Amino acid sequence: MTTLTSPPGGAAIRHPAPPATTGRTGTPRQGGTILALPALVWYAVFMIGPVIAIFVIAALHWPGMLQPVSFAGLGNVRTVLDDPVFWDAVRNTAVQLAVALPIMIVCAYMLGYYVAQKPPGHRVIRYLLFIPGLISTPAKAMVFYAALSPDGLANGALQSVGLGSLTDAWLASPSTALACLIALDVWSGIGFTAVLFAARLDSVPDDLGEAAQLDGAGHWRTMWRIHFPVIRDYVGVVTMLQFLWTLFGSAQHVLLLTQGGPGSSSTTLSFLVYQKAFIAADLGYSQTVGVILFLAGLVGLLAIRRAFRQNY
């Protein structure tokens, strides 16, 4: 409503009334909380709940799903730390991350930068890079098995060029089994990661690159000295995603190609969790390794976040 005031000797002036207040300033915020409640309940039950269950089961002696359960305390930790297979898995996982992650991120960034420059056929290149992400894991494993088996494509190619002495049973050799798994990890993730980098680099203003080239900088310096600092935080996010995928998702490649062998030469921590839970039926041991894997992932994420944080 409005009010009328009449100054002395003048016409009435119409003033708008102040807006009505209800005294419930928190209503929009409360409504947002109510809308988010189903998602919060889902997250608590299916995300936080399993994490708590991992720590609980790690303290139990549980020799199988239908077997009696007893409290083990720190007994599972001592068993895991005294097991040489566990330390082989730690070494293999460390090698896998130290080799696969830098190669994947650096090569994917360079490919993404090239695609972001929009060369001839860049749209087709984007689709070709994305193809490994569209292939199921069993299909990718079969491709690598066909290429690396004793009578596969790799040995056939070596024999055809007169290098038959270099042929090997790649997946069955302790010296090459882990390297084959690392190659599969890199091939699986590099194209998808390159497409992500290209999409992010497309949003960088063209003026930055043009100004650098006018100052005499080539593509190499422009790529690493101009564009990389701009998307440094995004590189950190992608690195964290690939770190988690390599750390936790390598079990399926090991299961399909090497079964952790020969011996334990290609056993990783994530595969050891599966092996102890579903093959050895030692759930306490399995989830103790799961706790160690969880803590390793948390520390790795914090380290990557710190390494790629912006300096301004």
From TrEMBL:
Residues 1-28 are annotated as: Disordered. It is a multi-pass membrane protein. It is found in: Cell membrane. Residues 90-304 form the ABC transmembrane type-1 domain. It comes from the Bacteria. InterPro entries: MetI-like, UgpAE/MalFG_permease. Pfam families: BPD_transp_1. Keywords: Cell membrane, Membrane, Transmembrane, Transmembrane helix, Transport. This is Sugar ABC transporter permease. The chain crosses the membrane at residues 34-62, 94-115, 127-148, 176-199, 234-257, 277-304. Belongs to the binding-protein-dependent transport system permease family.
